[in-house]
Design a protein that fits this description.
With 309 residues, the chain is mainly α. The protein has 2 domains: 1-64, no CATH class; 83-274. The chain has helices spanning 11-20, 40-49, 57-64, 75-78, 83-102, 115-136, 139-159, 186-209, 215-239, 243-275, 294-308. Helix 9 packs antiparallel against helix 10.
Length: 309
């Protein structure tokens, strides 16, 4: 819970805060909360020049893609922001995958050509970024980035012939022919669809939580929820022998994946522009002030009760 700010390094700020009663602590060393009248993009420029100015909840959510929470220590001033790194991994894996499964310019193979990017972009970068979010105390990005990083590593491993994920579904499987199972992939397709469906449920949970963050991230998560659902349908229809329906589901999955990519690229541009104090700052559509958190609602109830008394 925020506390009254009793000491600031700027006498003018302290005097203004005492007059208004709105000077709050952010839990990171007792720095004064930036004037709410200042636009978040202008605020970011001041933050980059001074480590003694706290950021507003809206600006914090834009930078870290999670509502602001109090944490011990001062690691957010010590380390850089890992969020762009994880987003970079997501869009660099999801973009070629979406284009591949839509069949643009003759692409195909269920995205197998980009297996390397799934390992080292989608998997490695997202897990590194997610782990650093955990170090900074940002639970939601930590969970989201590591979950999708794990997906990309799992998907890349499935596509790697030497692992033989689909080769085990053939009676003629051998180390010399690890892809033999693809010739009779009914069992494999049915089984793999359950993993994709599980990812769809996970993305749905993230999508609901994103209603407390921003519009762009919500678009990414809701689109990914549809992507995984359509991919699961693709594999099940393939197992049923409905190749035409499976093809339509696959193309639709790629289209929604491209929507997620567009929103992801927008967030990445916004964060990268902010990191270099670029003259143009991109909005991401803050939602934290629309859907109030549980703690905020309780605080509002307490204040309302105090006014009634």
């Amino acid at each position: 819970m925020a506390e009254k700010d009793l000491s600031t390094t700027d006498p003018a700020t302290s005097q203004a805060a005492s007059a208004s009663g709105n000077s709050m602590m952010n839990g990171n060393g007792g720095t004064p909360l930036l004037d709410q009248s200042i636009h978040p993009d202008a605020a970011l420029k001041r933050i980059q020049r001074s480590g003694s100015i706290a950021i507003t909840p809206e600006l914090f959510e834009k930078i870290y893609l999670t509502p602001q929470t109090e944490v011990k220590g001062d690691l957010r001033k010590t380390f850089g922001n890992p969020t762009p790194l994880a987003l970079l991994g997501l869009v660099m894996a999801l973009t070629p995958f979406s284009c591949d499964i839509m069949g643009w310019r003759g692409a195909g193979g269920d995205g197998a050509a980009a297996t390397g990017s799934y390992y080292f972009m989608g998997g490695l970068l997202m897990i590194i970024g997610g782990t650093l979010e955990w170090v900074l105390g940002n639970t939601f990005p930590f969970l989201v980035f590591n979950a999708y990083g794990g997906f990309w590593l799992s998907f890349a491993s499935t596509l790697t012939p030497s692992i033989g994920a689909y080769g085990h579904y053939s009676t003629s499987y051998s180390d010399l022919d690890p892809s033999a199972g693809l010739s009779n992939s009914t069992s494999f397709a049915t089984s793999f669809a359950f993993f994709l469906l599980s990812m769809g449920f996970l993305s749905l949970m993230f999508a609901i939580c994103c209603l407390r963050t921003n519009i762009c991230l919500a678009v990414v998560e809701w689109a990914l929820t549809i992507v995984f659902s359509l991919l699961a349908a693709t594999f099940w229809q393939t197992a049923n022998g409905n190749a035409a329906v499976a093809g339509k589901c696959l193309i639709a999955a790629g289209a929604f994946g491209f929507v997620a990519c567009a929103a992801g690229w927008w967030i990445l541009f916004a964060l990268t522009f902010a990191s270099v104090d670029f003259p143009i700052q991109l909005p991401v559509g803050d939602l934290s002030h629309i859907i109030k958190g549980k703690a905020q609602q309780e605080e509002m109830k307490v204040k309302a009760a105090e006014h009634q008394v």
